[in-house]
Amino acid sequence: MRYSAESWGFHGEVREQFVQHNPDSVVRQQAESNLINNPALSKEQARQAVDAFMISSVKGAYDSQNLVLNQLVQSGARNTALNLSLGVSPASLTEDHRFALSGD
Known about the structure:
The chain is built from 4 helices and no strands. The chain has one domain. The longest helix has 32 residues, at 43-74. It starts with a helix and ends with a helix. By secondary structure, the chain is mainly alpha-helical.
């Protein structure tokens, strides 16, 4: 991030902060991941489990980003550019779930 800011000519302060994931989201996603890997699920149950896991993944990322935003505002951040990239994209989520379903 620092490199990108400097290469675009930004001369202000750059702070890097790593996002701590919401523990509740992590527990929920782990439980849903375990459900996806249950070989006794019917096709419909597996589809519903994957849907729930994908929604939970996106909601967990949103919750974590919202937490970061609130912390920055409380710390006095104003007139700030913020990069919230967590590496979550539709492609990466799809790839994660393909592996979850295939058992790789």
